[in-house]
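Here's a chain:
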Amino acid sequence: MAALQTVGKIGPVLDLFSVRKPEWGVSEVAAAIDVPRSSAHALLSSLVDIGLLQCRSRGRYRIGWRVVELNQTLQGTVDVRSCAAPTLQTLSETYNETTHLAIMDRYRVMYVDKVVGNQVINVTGARIGAHLDAHCSAVGKVLLAHCSSAEIERNITHKPLRRLTPSTITNPASLQAELQSVLRTGCAFDSGEAVTEVHCVAAPIRDELGVVVAALSMTAPSTRFVPAQNEYRRAVISAAAEVSRTLARAEDITPVGAPETPLHAVAG
């Protein structure tokens, strides 16, 4: 049981490290995750031992180089990001709007890729690797819609839904109704619910078994989005379906047990 409790604390520790704050001390970590300083030190030391963190001077900690190796492993397998990249690019170039690819990470949206549009007045969109509450984004609603009601209640609506703009849905019953609509229509909209005057539409990406594994979206200022809403909706649904087909084909032909490239053998 103690081991499971320790594993449960590793995620919150790693979540602390970000582009804005890449370095943490023991006391800071202890205060942030509400554990004794000795417990925080033990967690940090364990993460250093397996290479996920590195200890810098003055007892400060940063993300470790093992992450690079894990990233190489991810890049060497078939993944939704590589399958979606060409479609994201084409969709963005066709409409000159910003496109995103997102997954669900512990019941929050994580943006894993994007292509920025080419407009005078543009939406740069979420940073790759950024997290956002799922209830206030189009990609989040798509991903939540394919979770069970019990999962949503346990992980989303068991606490107040955070309001980011006047349009954010904060009522659990209204959110459930919205998610039912997503299942019926095959897409979700964000009408200025995360950022005022920024609208988007998203659709699900499925793997070879039909399981929703990601969501694809297109984002634009409301002044451009609203008049073209139906066209954008059709384009995004079509693009997500294309990525789903690409992902299914890739899974079918991926060799099992392919030889790995050692980390030290990578040039550059």
